[in-house]
TrEMBL record:
InterPro entries: IF_conserved, IF_rod_dom, Keratin_I. GO terms for molecular function: structural molecule activity. This is IF rod domain-containing protein. Gene3D superfamilies: 1.20.5.170, Single helix bin, Vasodilator-stimulated phosphoprotein. One of its GO terms (biological process) is intermediate filament cytoskeleton organization. Residues 81-122, 182-220, 289-348 form a coiled coil. Belongs to the intermediate filament family. It holds the Pfam family Filament. GO terms for cellular component: keratin filament. Keywords: Coiled coil, Intermediate filament, Keratin, Phosphoprotein. SMART domains: Filament (SM01391). Residues 84-384 form the IF rod domain. It comes from Piliocolobus tephrosceles (Ugandan red Colobus). It comes from the Eukaryota.
Length: 418
């Protein structure tokens, strides 16, 4: 007797199904199988499927004791039916309690749903007021905009500061260069002033010498009493003329002095203009020289870097060449070793080939001799091992040992039947 209780969940919610009771038995056979199943369906309940099934099997035979055992099996089947009724009664009771519980739960569920709907109808739909958050959002947006503007203003100030700093540095560099030009111009001006003072002193000295010479000549003319008579017309008296017209000489000297001053002033202005032009040219030349020096320095730096790179590349090249030379030596050594091994292998192969040929020849000769001796033994002639060994070739005798001799005898002599 076997009892199986199975609960299967249903696809549709709202009913419980219990399978009906069936009993099958074949009374025409002494051995058979009885199957019972219970099925019940209760609409309106939210539960699961309950099925009960059991099988009773009995088998009898027509041999000795077969009928008795068959009847005993039938009685056991009747007792099983009684047990099935009790089981069905207990299952019905459990099902009734289960259905009562389901109905109570459904009633409680409907009651709770009605309470929920009443609560929702009383409370109504509420709409949350988000207006007080709008003010906060506007304030935050205003703060973000203000911070963005401050950030942009700070960035603009930084850019202006960087631009002004670059301009200031360039102006300072120009001022530094102009100061050098001013210093050079001042040195040139001092040199020119010194030259002008020297020229003025030289002019005064020349004027003084000229006046002294004129006075000396006048004194000599006045003190000289020499009278020279010539056929030429009478010349004017220079002393008288000089004594009569001193104002003319003063005017002439003044004019000469003015012309000389004007000449030296013009020369000074021209020299100043030339100095200014030359100073500008010198400044431009110095600027060009500075730029050329910077260019030369940058080129020297580039040249040093290129030289360093070249030196490093040469070192790397030497290291690579040394490494490859070492590897080449190693490979040459390996190649020579392999060539020597190959030569040894070839020599060994040739030696083994010669030995194989010799052994093959010996084998052929031995097989021929063994065949001959076997024929002699089969013909019934007298056979002596010593005579046979003496008749073999010297090479065969050298290869034949004591153990191999016994094996040869085993080959030559037929084994007696067991």
């Amino acid at each position: 007797l076997s009892l199986r209780l199975q609960r299967k969940p249903l696809i549709r919610k709202g009913y419980v199904q219990l399978d009906a009771v069936t009993h099958t038995c074949n009374p025409n056979t002494l051995g058979g199988r009885a199957v019972q199943s219970v099925s019940m369906q209760v609409p309106g309940a939210s539960g699961s499927r309950i099925s009960v099934s059991h099988s009773t099997s009995f088998r009898g035979g027509m041999g000795s004791g077969g009928l008795a055992s068959g009847m005993a099996g039938g009685l056991a089947g009747m007792g099983g039916i009684q047990n099935e009724k009790e089981t069905m009664q207990s299952l019905n009771n459990r099902l009734a309690s289960y259905l009562d519980k389901v109905r109570s739960l459904e009633t409680e569920n409907r009651r709770l749903e009605s309470k929920i709907w009443e609560h929702l109808e009383k409370k109504g739909s509420q709409v949350r007021d988000w207006s007080h958050y709008f003010k906060i959002m506007e304030d935050l947006r205003a703060q973000i905009f203000a911070n963005t503007m401050d950030n942009a203003r700070i960035v603009l100030q930084i850019d202006n500061y960087e631009t002004e700093l670059a301009m200031r540095q360039s102006v300072e560099n120009n001022i530094h260069g102009l100061r050098k030009v001013i210093d050079d111009t001042n040195v040139t001006r001092l040199q020119l002033e010194t030259e002008i003072e020297a020229l003025k002193e030289e002019l005064l000295f020349m004027k003084k010498n000229h006046e002294e010479e004129v006075k000396g000549l006048q004194a000599q003319i006045a003190s000289s009493g020499l009278t020279v008579e010539v056929d030429a017309p009478k010349s004017q008296d220079l002393t008288k003329i000089m004594a009569d017209n001193p104002a003319q000489y003063d005017e002439l000297a003044r004019k000469n002095r003015e012309e000389l001053d004007k000449y030296w002033s013009q020369q000074t202005e021209e020299s100043t203009t030339v100095v200014t032009t030359q100073s500008a040219e010198v400044g431009a030349a110095k600027t060009t020289l500075t730029e050329l020096r910077h260019t030369v320095q940058s080129l020297e730096i580039d040249l040093d870097s290129v030289r360093n790179l070249e030196a490093s590349l040469e070192n790397s090249l030497r290291e690579v060449e040394a490494c490859y030379a070492l590897q080449m030596e190693q490979l040459n050594g390996i190649l020579l070793h392999l060539e020597s091994e190959l030569a040894q292998t070839r020599a060994e192969e040739q030696r083994q080939a010669h030995e194989y040929e010799a052994l093959l020849n010996i084998k052929v000769k031995l097989e021929a001799e063994i065949t001959t001796y076997r024929h002699l033994l089969e013909d019934g002639e007298e056979f002596n091992l010593g005579d046979a060994l003496d008749s073999w070739s010297p090479v065969a005798r050298s290869l034949l040992t004591a153990s191999s001799a016994s094996r040869v005898l085993a080959i030559l002599l037929p084994q007696p039947p067991e």
